Every structure is written in C-alpha cells, then in structure tokens.
Amino acid sequence: TDDTSMSAVRGRKKRKNKENKTRTVRANTLLNDHPNPHYANNKIKTTKYTLLSFLPKNLFEQFHRFANVYFVFIALLNFVPVVNAFQPELALAPVVFILSVTAIKDLWEDYRRHRSDTEINHMDCLVYSSMERRYVEKYWKEVQVGDFIRLRCNEILPADVLLLSSSDPDRLCHIETATLDGETNLKQRQVVRSFLDLDCEFDPFKYHSVIECEKPNNDLNRFRGYIVHRSGRRDVLCKENLLLRGCTIRNTEEAVGIVIYAGHETKAMLNNNGPRYKRSKLERQMNVDVFWCVIILLVICSFAAVGHGLWMFQYGDKRPVFDVLSPQGTNLSPIMSAIYLFLTLIIVFQVLIPISLFVSIEIVKICQVYLIHQDMDLYDEETDSHLQCRALNITEDLGQMQYIFSDKTGTLTENKMVFRRCTVAGVEYSHDANARRLAMYQEMDSEEEECMSHGGTLPRRESVTSHQSARVVLRSQSTKSHRRTGSRAEAKRASILSKHTAFSSPMVSSPKDITPDPQLLYKLSSDLSDIIDFFIALTICNTVVVSSPNQPRHKVKPSWKSEIKQVSGGCSSLLSSPSAESTLTKLHEEQSSHLEPTFSPVPPCYDGKASWNLEEGELRYEAESPDEAALVYAARAYKCSLVGRLPDQVTVELPHLGKLSFELLHTLGFDSTRKRMSVVVKHPLTDQITVYTKGADSVIMDLLKPLDTGKRQKKIICRTQNYLNLYAADGLRTLCIAKKVSDGEYACWLQCHLEAETAIQGREELLFQSALRLETNLQLLGATGVEDRLQDGVPETVAALRRAGLQIWVLTGDKQETAVNIAYACKLLDPEEEMLTLNADSQVSHVSLINSSSSLSSHNTSPFLVHRLGLVIDGRTLAYALDKTLEDKFLEVARSCRSVLCCRSTPLQKSMVVKLVRNKLKVMTLAIGDGANDVSMIQVADVGVGISGQEGMQAVMASDFALPRFRYLQKLLLVHGHWCYSRLANMILYFFYKNAMFVALLFWYQFYCGFSGSAMIDQWYLIFFNLMFSAFPQLVTGTLDKDVSAETLQRLPQLYVNGQNSEEYKPYMFWMNMIDAFYQSLVCFFIPYFAYADSDVDLFTWGTPITTLALFTILLHLGIETKTWTWMNWLSIIFSITLFFTVALCYNASCPTCFSPSNPYWTMQRQLQEPLFYLLCLITPVTALLPRYRAPLACKMLTFITLRGPNLVK
Fold first, then answer.
1. Integer Cα distance of 34 and 12 in angstroms
2. What's the pLDDT score for residue 887?
3. Per the annotation, does 1061 bind a ligand?
4. Of 297, 611, 762, 925, which residue is most buried, by most CB within 10 angstroms?
5. Whole-number pLDDT of residue 328
6. Looking at the whole model, is its pTM more than 0.90?
7. Residue 224 annotated as binding?
8. Does 934 appear as a known binding residue?
9. What is the pLDDT of residues 561-579, one digit of tens each?
10. Burial class of 687 by CB neighbour count within 10 A (0 to 12, 13 to 18, 19+)
11. How far apart, in Å, are the Cα atoms of 231 and each of 166, 194, 755, 1046, 1134?
12. What is the dihedral of CA 1062, 1063, 1066, 1069, to 10 degrees?
C-alpha cells in the first residue's frame, strides 16, 4: 500500500512538472464553457498607466532619479518654518515644473500607445462560432486560445495560430515576416501532418484533438509540441506549422488554424522589449561630479553653520535684538541655531546641484539625433534608407570609441555573391571567360554611375547574380516596379544590374549571369556521374522557392503531381523534414514491393532547349541567402535548373534527362553551429536514398570517408583542398559539396530521428546529434568559389578610422585565407607590416604559440613598431585563447597589434571577444554587423551598429544605430560623434560652472550677515535664474556648436583622438570650472559692493545689479566658449536678456509691499536710470572673464604649434 501511494505521489509530481513546462490547448467547440480559461486573451495593452495609476506611478518612476528625490526633499524642507528660506509655494515651482514637463511627455507617449492599442484591438478577423456553426467577424481583442480562425490573403495574423488547413493544393501557406525580423522573402508554413489528406473543407466542429506544446517564449525560430488525436495517434508539431502574430498571409487564398498563444503570450509581444537604454561614459563621469557638488554643498553649508554658531556664541547671554526665537518662544542655543541654519542654507544653495541639467541633456540629445537624421550624407539613395538612431541616450559615446569589432560578410563586403570558379572530382574549372566578362563590367561601373542617377535607383533586393540583356521587372520592398527602358548596349545594362545583386531575380531566356566553362560544359554533356551529382546538389540542396516574375509572390504550380503525397515537417529552427512517420511506414511497405520511378526521363530526342525556353522566362528564384541564389543560378547556366519545389519533392531539369522529380524526405537546415545543410532525397532513376550536403570546408572535410577507403577519393580530397586554398587566397568564399548513398542505414536512422522530433525537452540537441549520425562517411563531389565584392568606400573608411586612432578587429566565420585576402583588400592589413598567425590544434600548442608571439611583441617597445604588427587567429585557436587561464596572455599579444583578424569564429566567440576587450582593457567598444550571427556581439558592445544589408534586419533591430553602408561609419564617428561629445561635455561643464558661480554670490554675502542664511537677491530671481533666464542659450549651443568643421574632421581624422582621450571632460576641468566660478563670483560680488559702499541703498537695490551682472557674465562666458555662431545663438541670448528685464520690470512694478522692510518695488526701474548701473555692466563682466578669455588664446596657440610646428620648421 505504501509503495502504491508513493508511486501515485510520484506520478502526480511528474504530471505537475510536465504541466509546468507545457500547455494543453483544446478547441473551444468541445465544451460549452471556455476550456482554456487560464491563458491570456488576445487584448493587448502596452500602456504604462491608467487614469487612476498615472500620477502615483509616474511620480514613483521619476523618483528613481536621485536628483528628483533631492529636489523634492529640499522643497518640502522649505515648508518647515524654522528653516525655510523662501515662500514654500515658490520653492515648489522649479520641482513641479520639471516633474510636470516629464509627466506630460510620458503622458503623451502613453496616450499614443493607447491609441495604437485601441486600433489594433479593434481590427477584424473571422472566428468560428460554435453557436452559429459558421465564421463570424470579431475584434482581435475577443479572440481566445482555442478559437478557430479563418485567414485570407494579405491579412495580418491576430495571434499565434497552428495551421490546420490551407486552400493551397500542396497544403502550404506563405507568410511574410518583415514585421518580426525585417526579412521580406516569403516563408513557407505547412499544415499539420494529420490534416494533409483532407479532401473536404475543414470543419472545426469535427475537430477532437488535443494539443500539447511548450510554454510561451520569445524564440521566433522554435516551436515544440505534439497533437494527440482521439485515436491516440500523436503527431509532432514544429515551427513550420505555426503562424506568428503580426505576419502577413501571402499567396494563399484561405487558411484555417487554431489559436495557440494570444495577446501578450504571443512570440511577437514577448519580443517587444521597448527601446534600449544604455548609460553613456560621459553620463557616468557627470554623476561623479554631481557627487562632488553634493560634497561642496555640504562643506560650505557646514562652514556657514559653524560661522553662524560662533557668531551667535560671541553674544553670550546678551541676545541680539534681531535674533529669531524658537517656535516655543525661547532663545535658541548657538548649536541649535547652527543646525537650523545648516538646513536653511541647504535650501538657499540648492541650485549648486543643477536641477535642469538632466532635462537639458535629454533635450539636447533629441536635437542631436534629429540633426544626424537630417544629414543627407548618411542617406543611401540606392537602398532608399537613412541612418536610424535606436538609442537616444548614447550619442556622445560615438565620439569616444577606441575599438571597432566588425563582421566581414555583408558589412565590409556587399554580400551579393557572384559565382566565379569550381572544382569537381579534383579537376578545377577556372571559368576564365566569366572572369574576363565580370572584369569588363566592373571597369564600366564607374561610367554608369551618372546613368544610374538619371535612370532611377535600383531597389536593394531586386536582381540576383544575373546580367540580363532583356527588360526585366524589378520589385522593391514596397512592391513598386521600375522598368529599365531605352536602347542601351547590352553590356552597359548588364553592368548596372550586376551592381545590384540580391536574392530574387526574373529568369530570362539568355542565361548571361554565368558564362559556362567550356570544358565543364562538355563533360556535363558526356553524362559523367560525379559532375551530374555535383550540379544536382547545387540545384536541390537549398531552400530556394520558385515563383513567377509576373506575380513574384506566387509559387509556380507544376502540372504534375507525385503519386505519394507527403509533407515536410522538420521540427526545429535547426532541422526540418517531411513526415518522418509516413516515410518510415512507406519504407516498410517498399521492403515487400518495388515502386516504379515517379517520373520517366524524357525521350532520347530531347535536346535540352525546348523546355528550357518554355520555363526560363516564367520563373523567379527567391532564396534566403545570396550564397544559395548564386549557386542555383550557376547550375542554371549549365542547363541544370530548379523548376519547382514542393514540401515533399524538388523538380529539376537536367541536360539529356529532362525534368526529374526528387522525393524530398528530409531537410537538415544550415545554422552557425553546424555550418552545413543537407537534403535527403529519393533518386527518381535509381530509387536510392541519397544525402546531398554542402557546407564549410572545415566541417565537410571532417565528415568525409576515411582516406584509406580508396586512392581515387584520397586524390580528389587532396586536390580539392589545394584548390580551396587557392580560392581563399583570391578572396573567394568557398563551399564543399558532398553526397552519400544511405539505403541500408536510413530506416534505422529514421526511427531514431522520429524519436528526436517528438521530444519536447532537449529537442535541438537530439536533432543535432541525429543529423550528425547521418552526415558521416560522405563522398566529396567538389567545391565552389563565390566572389563577394567589397562595398564602395570600405578601404578609405578603414584607413581613415585607423588614422583616427581606432583599433579595428574583424571577426568573421569565413575561411582564414579568404579573410586575410579581404583584409588586405580593405587595407586592414598592410603588406609592409609583419603578420602573426596563430593556428593551434591543441591547447598545449596554443600556449607555446602565444608565448612566442608575446615575446615577439614585447620586443617592440616603441609605439611605432608596435603598430606594424597584424594578428590572424582561427576559430579553434581562439577557443583556446578565450580560456580563463590564457585570455590575459592573448589580450597582451592582441593589444600590441595594429589589426586583429579572427577567422572561423562563432557568434558566441564574437561576443566573448568583445566582452573580453571591453572589460579587461576598460575601453570603449563598437561592434558592427549585418546578420543574425552578429546580434550577440552588437548587444555586448558599448555601441552596437547594424547594417541594413542582405541578411535581414535582426542586426538592425538589436543595434543602437543602423547604417545603410559601412562607409557611413566614418562620418558618424569622426564628425557627428566628435560634435556630440564635444557639445555635451562643454555643456555639462558650463552647467556646473554657472550654478556654482551663482551660489558663490550668496555664499560671499554670508560673511556680511552673520551667516544667517539671508540673501541679497530676490527669491524670485533665485528660483528662476537657472530655470528660465539662463537656460535657452546653453541649449542652443549644446545642439548646434561645432568646434571644427565637418570637412576638417574628415580631412584630419587624428582630431578624433580628442574624444578618445576625453580631452573635453577631464576630472581637473570640473575643478578648474569651480575655481573660475568662484573667481567670477568674487568679481561680480565685490565690484558692486565697493561701488555702493557707504550709500543708503536698500538690500535689493544692491542685489539686483549683482543678479544682472551675473547674468551678463554667464552669457558672455558662454559666448567665449561658443565656437560657431548662428542666428539662433544670437536670438537665444537676446531672448534671455529681454526675458530677464521684462520679468524684472513687471515684477518690480507689481509688488509694492512684498517683502517689507526690504522692498523690490520699482528697483529695476530706478537702476535703469542710474549711470553707475551701466558702468558696472561694462566693467564687471570684462574683469570677471579676462582669465577665461586669455586661456582659450593660449590653448589655440599651443594647438597650432603642436599641429603645424614641424611644417613651420621645415
């Protein structure tokens, strides 16, 4: 009995753990009540506040800033009668103003989110009603988990939906995921396996299955689960069956699905993290100086409190007649008087901590971002894209970068692949005619630049590696079409098109994108099996979709059908396959009966031309990567063309064989870990199960059959490796092609693979190991070399960045020889510099290599010799170098080199390298890339830059800044980065100076009033001096000032070192500004003091000129610091002075009995009638600013001598 109860308890725990990791979804038609009550509904709410929660929640958020808490505390302290310095209501004004401005901004942003939420929640969709037995229109917000939804073409998905039915005859549904990942190429989604063979329309009321799937998560490329039918049969579910919220249905008239995740549990909403927030280096330095301001405030308040206590103590028992009694009416002791005065002076001197500084910085940064966006030099006409700033608060960091980490493919290069050379069965085919033709086109590129600007721009993703001679229809992302017309020469038109390669292109009758190699073409016509297999692999080992050029988003429907219908199912972001279970069943059936080939070859009289011409002008290829497109078009040039793709079969057209349909059993997809992809097909002529694999040579070579299996294969491998090295030396991207006949082991492998597919926990690892078991003992067919051209301006940009003192590291997954060749081409490596190459097969050999390299670099003690070194390291050695015990040694070698090139590096290694340099060297880092494999690197760096290139928008969406081209990085850093840093650094220092100068005026007065906390300046001026009268000019200067012109900054990149070394904001500069502020306050205080000595003027008549002189001095000080004067600078200064006098005149005229006995009435009016007032306004600011005026002259002379001195000597 005990054993039974214990087993029952364990069973309940197991079920509970399973329920915690998975969710069960039942159809809402099964029960009268909602069967999924615990899951989120589809109503979204991205707003922060409600009408009731806005005020407390917003104040709570604002009080996370220490400065806001400090100022509120000071304002509340002013309500205590014994320590108050101002009218309590007046003291609240600045704090309330700052909090109100921020609250209004937050409220407006939240209102915009509310409007967007309302619009989305009230969109319509068709939902099945069990009461009415039909689909009815409902709002998105009314959709629930378990509802059946009917989707129509061009409709946006309201939730994450499991696809159960499609009007497509192949049970496919095409979606566009641009709103999720920025990719405009179509993705195929497949109906759940058990619903494939429905001959009638899907009836939700007859649905009785239960879905078990994983909990909601933000992984867009993963969905794991299974569906259990009433019969007990269980079918696997994967990402290919899931339609994500926000995607758009394309090319499918109608589809039906069941809602799995709704509302905030959808993958799109879970990925909506809002804007990125980073703290800039300058902001961190500023916070240190704010802390010092607090210390200064406490010191001067303590000094004044002690002075007041001593002053009170000297009277002894004879209290002064003006002494303030305690609230109980008794005399206060000197100690208590000092304590109360300390709190009073905290209130009086509060402006030493600049309350408006934080708001001003935010305003200036927004204005700087706007100006960067308006720079037309950062606009790319070809792609019609601007620079994007996705992080508003780190613009000044752009001017302080020290290390740049860059991807290669798509970042330094175009990522637009052109097939150049190949080797098949150990024989190299150089394609010399093709190379000469491409060289001729590239020479003509410059001649066509002007023609392109007149003839219209080509969209970024239009044509593939084909150089068409006929008119072609080009489709941009916005679905607009542009047609090239005119009577241009064929070569010129081809040269224009060759510069704009992308993933999809119309296929025309003349395949001039590749000029076939005559020798290879002859051997192909001779029907050599290795060559045919090589081109079959190029044609089918991919995910290319065939579509029609007239309707680019419609898949070509072939006129044939396979006899046995199966569907592709693969189950993870890593691997996908057709129905493993149905394939396994079919294999058992075929053991007893032999099936006829699905397709018969064409008659012998077929000449390979008629069908080619029929199909060639009607098809368009759409690939997920430019490599795939280049290889498919290369095969097409040899009349081995892909003409149709279905989930379970791929149809190709081969010379002398015609159309053949390969039954597609599995697709083992490519990723950055596997670095290869494979397709498992059934050959239509031999009925053999064949695996075709393509991938990086570093991976494929390790998966080949052992060399002792055959002398011919060994010879092919050795020759192919030599040709791969030659291709890489020429800067070509290389891929190896291999195959394997897997009849005997396939059935056993399939059984294991089916178990991996149906697993929910650890499925990715199981599938990875399953694929590895199949992709072994491969037979090498050949290799390809594909050219990826450098982007325009990359060598010049790299050279300029290096002259600016930036260390550039390139982190790439490419072969070492390819990466080195590109590094020389883009001037990252110099032929004259010595190159250290670290390639180690083990950690022991790496240690010896790194020690020898360390000793070599340590000999170069002079900075000049250090910068003549370049380091090249491969991925395996980098893995050893990143070990905790060796990373310091590696970093020591790497930092002594002028350039570092990391080859064969994985995405994880890229991020680890960036993190290592940033944390160990304490330097500012920038990472730039264009693909999903660069995201981790971009997010780890201080500043992440994404290139909106050929690999989707994942890098852009993860970045702080997005650029259309790498060359724009030069102006972004050297010009805008320099300006942003210089402006903000000077503005922050000016803020500290201005506030300290104003507070010091009050401090000097304490020596003449017994340290009583009195002020000779009217409290209205005290409150609004920094908030209104002196605020606008510094905002204009902080936004528009330019210490050096853009032309000079780009001509002299060395000026960027100013920001790298934080020359504009050194710690001593804060103290120099404090000293300057105290000096100026002494001048502004004592010149009026001696001018009005022995006169009978009242306190405010003496204090008002001091306020005026302080304002003039502060504004003139800003004028001296301003390098570039515009009409806005003049206008802001005039406006500030006018505002001050207007407020003063109106206030003094309307306040006859405000603060008796000292009264501000008519004070300013009397001052304007006194010649002495004008004399003071002339003498005092000049005297105060004389040292500040002389200092810039000395600095300019020193800079001139430093920069021009050697030339003057010559």
1. 25
2. 85
3. no
4. 925
5. 61
6. no
7. no
8. yes
9. 333 223 333 333 334 444 4
10. middle
11. 23, 12, 20, 74, 85
12. -150
* Strand, coil or helix: 238: coil
Give the residue ranges of DSSP H helices in 622-665: 626-637
Q: Is 709 among the annotated ligand-binding positions?
A: no
Tell whether 1166 is in a known binding site.
no
Does 627 carry a binding-site annotation?
no
Sheet with 545-547, side-by-side order of all strands: 504-506, 620-622, 545-547
Q: How far apart are the first and last CA of the chain?
A: 104
Residue 57 marked ligand-binding: no
Distance CA 935, CA 927 (A): 9
Q: Is the peptide bond before 1157 cis (omega within 30 degrees of 0)?
A: yes
Known binder of ligand: residue 110? no
Rounded to whole angstroms, how far apart are CA atoms 1171 and 692?
A: 97
pLDDT digits 0-9 by tens, 760-796: 677 778 888 888 888 888 888 999 988 877 888 888 9
CA gap 329, 352 in Å, rounded: 33
Kindly state the greatest CA–CA separation across the chain: 129
Coil, helix or strand at residue 261: strand
Q: Which residues partner with 128 through β-bridges?
A: 135
DSSP characters for 1026-1086? IIIITTHHHHHHHHH--SS-HHHHHH-GGGGHHHHTTTTS-HHHHHHHHHHHHHHHHHHHH
Let me know if 113 is exposed, middle or buried by CB neighbors in 10 A (0-12, 13-18, 19+).
middle
Distance separating alpha carbons of residues 919 and 925, to the nearest angstrom: 10
The total of other beta-carbon atoms located within 10 Å of residue 166's CB is 25
Sorting pLDDT into bands at 50, 70 and 90, what band is 11?
A: low
133 alpha carbon, distance to own chain's centre: 47
Q: Binding site annotation covers 930?
A: yes
What type of residue sits at position 376? M
| Residues 978, 1057 contacting (CB under 8 angstroms) | no
Catalytic site includes residue 407: yes
Strand partners, 483: 473
Alpha-carbon distances, residue 148 vs 26, 133, 164, 202, 257 (angstroms): 11, 12, 9, 11, 6
Identity of the residue numbered 54: F
Q: With beta carbons less than 8 A apart as the criterion, state whether 507 and 636 touch.
A: yes
Q: At what angle do helices 432-455 and 490-498 cross, to 10 degrees?
A: 90
Q: Specify the pLDDT at position 322.
A: 59
Q: Would you say 539 and 635 are in contact if contact means Cβ atoms under 8 Å apart? A: yes
Per-residue DSSP letter, 449:
H
Candidates 378, 548, 557, 385; CA nearest to 461 is 385
423-453 pLDDT tens trace: 998 888 877 766 666 555 555 544 444 444 4
Confidence class for position 182, pLDDT limits 50, 70, 90: low
In degrees to the nearest 10, what's the CA dihedral of 834, 838, 839, 841?
A: 150
Q: Where are the beta strands (DSSP E) in 278-412?
A: 388-389, 403-406
Neighbours of 257 (CB within 10 A): 27
Q: Look-up: residue for tokens 């704010």?
A: 290
CA nearest to 900, candidates 933, 875, 869, 941: 869
pLDDT digits (tens, 9 = 90+) for 1152-1200: 666 555 677 888 888 898 899 999 999 999 999 888 777 655 555 555 5
**26 appears as a binding residue in the annotation:** no
Angle between helices 518-525 and 529-540 (to 10 degrees): 100
* 755 assigned ligand-binding residue: no
One-letter identity of residue 139: Y
pLDDT at 159: 93
Query: What gap in Å lies between CA 1006 and CA 992, rounded to an integer?
Result: 21
Residue 121 is assigned to a ligand binding site: no
CA distances from 1 to 4, 6, 410, 546 (A): 5, 9, 68, 65
Active-site annotation holder among 168, 170, 397, 407: 407
